[in-house]
Amino acid sequence: MRLPQLSEEEIQGLIAQATEFANGQYERFVSRAQPLTEPQRTMVDGFFSDDVLRDARVILLENESVLNPDFVTELRARGFEFLFDINHLNAVPFREVLVYHETINKRLLFHGLVHLVQQRVMGQQKWLERYVRSLLKTGLHVSIPIEVHAYELDGRYALSPATLFSVEEEVRAWADAGRY
Ligand SMILES: [Zn+2]
């Protein structure tokens, strides 16, 4: 896939737009998002630290969605044709608010929490910046390292939910090795 090359200035502009978008979505949903229910906590207990399980907020959207930010439309027009529709993505994290469309299951819950841990380990702003830069390199959200790792970990959990591991340790190992 040949992707257009953007200048550093353009990339910085996109990161700024993504930040503004994420802040806006956080404000939009934070008051309605709910802490994890007891059954949800039980499902993922042992994989995440108590503060992550305490701070996470979840919202399931039914008759509304997160619309694509303008920069996604612009990037598509410039040749990034395979960029996601954000309303098809599930477990979209805006800080500690995890937004789900139509459905939330164990694996999707886990996936969203992995993103929350990544944001805490890397720092919210750094996470967003890595996300945008990787997206511009690969053009596909499924192949960016932040997502590859989240899919790998939620897959491991789905395959064997009784085999505990620390998501934070896994995320730190990737962050320290510069894999994101
Ligand atoms: Zn994800």
Structure description:
This protein is of the alpha+beta class. The chain has one domain. 56% of the residues lie in helices and 8% in strands. The chain contains eight helices and four strands, in the order αβααβαββαααα. Strands 1-2-4-3 form a four-stranded mixed beta sheet. Helix 5 (106-122) packs across helix 6 (124-138) and helix 5 crosses helix 7 (145-159). The longest helix has 22 residues, at 8-29. The two termini are 21 Å apart. The mean pLDDT is 92. Residues 91, 111, 115, 147, 150 line the site of zinc ion.
Sum up the structure in keywords:
single chain; 180 residues; four-stranded mixed beta sheet; globular; binds zinc ion
- Helical residue percent band: 55-70%
Bound molecules: zinc ion
- Assembly state of the chains shown: single chain
- What would the principal axes of the Cα set say about the shape? globular
Order of helices and strands: HEHHEHEEHHHH
Residue share in β-strands: 5-15%
Runs with pLDDT <50, length 5+? none
What is the count of structural domains?
Answer: 1
Class from helix and strand fractions: alpha+beta
Rg result: 16 Å
Q: Can you count the helices?
A: 8
Distance between the termini: 21 Å
Averaged pLDDT: 92
Largest sheet: 4 strands, mixed
Strand order of the largest sheet: 1-2-4-3
Number of strands: 4
Helix/strand layout:
Layout: H1 8-29, E1 34-35, H2 38-44, H3 50-55, E2 57-61, H4 70-77, E3 92-94, E4 97-101, H5 106-122, H6 124-138, H7 145-159, H8 167-176
Parallel strand pairs: 2-4
Antiparallel strand pairs: 1-2, 3-4
Helix pairs in contact: 1-6, 5-6, 5-7, 5-8
The chain binds zinc ion (ZN).
